[in-house]
Amino acid sequence: MKYCSNCGTEIVKQIPAGDDRLRFVCPQCNIIHYQNPNVVVGCLPIAGEQVLLCRRAIEPRLGYWTIPAGFMENGETMLEGALRETREEAAAKVKGETLYRLFDIPHINQVYVFYRGELDGGFGVGPESLESKLFSEDEIPWSELAFPIVTDVLIEYFQDRKSGEYPIRVSIPSKTWARHVGWDPKSDSEA
Predict the structure, then answer these.
(1) What is the pLDDT of residues 149-174, one digit of tens each?
(2) What average pLDDT does the structure give for the chain?
């Protein structure tokens, strides 16, 4: 951020009175421009013994498989965002959705929230997907998954399915996870 969105003055980085971290502050109108984490929401659609994945039509990780997910929009709940992303990327509806997985990723200022639910009808593709497909566990293209988080969610889901227990897990991936796929988290984000 270089200029104040309120008055156009060049901003400075400083610690405002009563705060404990550097912020973008306008020296003219004194507005503090807070920057907060982005929330990525998604849903793992399930159809019997299979899960629905989408092949990405956009960077990062163009051509790789992922869970339908994307940035939460203002004015929607996490669940509404996850269901919207599922409709947008996989032309799919989900029912019986439940919170399933949370990832805190402070080193790129993001939080990922995944639900799981039953596929309700058919599916297709949206503008950010090349294709959508149902996979059983032994058909998952493990070497073609877009992000390590997708791998984590799928491995945990197939383990949980065996026990019939689906705990809500929260974790913090290491700072090196993005390097495993050659992805620059500053360029974009997606689960």
Answers:
(1) 999 999 999 999 999 999 999 999 87
(2) 92
Q: What is the 3-state secondary structure (H, E, C) of the chain?
A: CCECCCCCCECEEECCCCCCCCEEECCCCCCEECCCCEEEEEEEEEECCEEEEEEECCCCCCCCEECCEEECCCCCCHHHHHHHHHHHHHCCCEEEEEEEEEEEEHHHCEEEEEEEEEECCCCCCCCCEEEEEEEEHHHCCHHHECCHHHHHHHHHHHHHHHHCCCCCEEECCCCCHHHHHCCCCCCCCCC
Residues 132 and 100: their CA atoms lie apart, in Å, by 21
Query: Phi/psi of residue 31, each to 5°?
Result: -75, 135
pLDDT in tens, 54-83: 999 999 999 999 999 999 999 999 999 999
- pTM (predicted TM-score): 0.85
Cis peptide, bond prior to residue 60, ω within 30 of zero: yes
